[in-house]
Design goal:
By secondary structure, the chain is α+β, with helices and mostly antiparallel strands. It is 20% helix and 34% strand. It is built from 5 helices and 12 strands. The strands form 2 sheets. The protein has a 5-stranded mixed beta sheet with strand order 1-2-3-5-4, sandwiched between helices. A 5-stranded mixed barrel has the order 7-9-10-12-11. The protein is elongated. The chain starts with 12 loop residues before the first strand and ends with a strand.
Length: 230
Amino acid sequence: MDLDPITPFKKSTVLFNPSWHKGVVGIVASRLIERYYKPTIILTESNGMATGSARSVKDFDVYTAIENCSHLLEQFGGHKFAAGLSLKTENVKAFIEAFENEVSRSIKPEMLIPTVEIDLEIALDDINDKLIRILNQFAPHGPHNMTPVFISRGVLDTGFAKVVGANHLKLEVYQPNTQLTKIEAIAFGKGDFLNFFKRNIPVDIVYKIKVNEFRGVTSIQLIIEEIKAA
């Protein structure tokens, strides 16, 4: 069972579950950063020790925060934006409290406010194989080489917009007065915007481009991060 639930008043997220797979804790930490935007550590049990990965928010030095809790750790290493650590399982609860205290002491309020930095405005018609090849040349992406973020304006849905899962918005978007390129898109946690698309209100969307491959077939999907009435 998790020793620390995700609570809105805390400045950090630290979760421990002995049954989680060691290979996915870093991915889970990154996903929780996207959802809650707090310095995050995910721990599992391996060889009798609690071990896991830490991820940070922009401008916060998670490595230093962990280092200041090193009296509770067996090993740790990493850099400002990401780290790995291990500790005795009996120290997990004390570490959760110490890390939260350290983050609360040192993090600035503005660091807990997610920001979306837009790299370029493009038309949906610009999203093609050539652009994908160019983007692939910049991979892999990480803290010093973030995934490019684009904005397209005056976007509409083809009529199939719907809410799926936990308030996620699934779309097929296009821009009028263009070549009518239609691209699948998903906006996590933005189901409240469904009425914009049902009422045919043009919107500006901020997004990342994801390439999916399934059984040899490649498709493009937009991961929408922000929606605003045009």
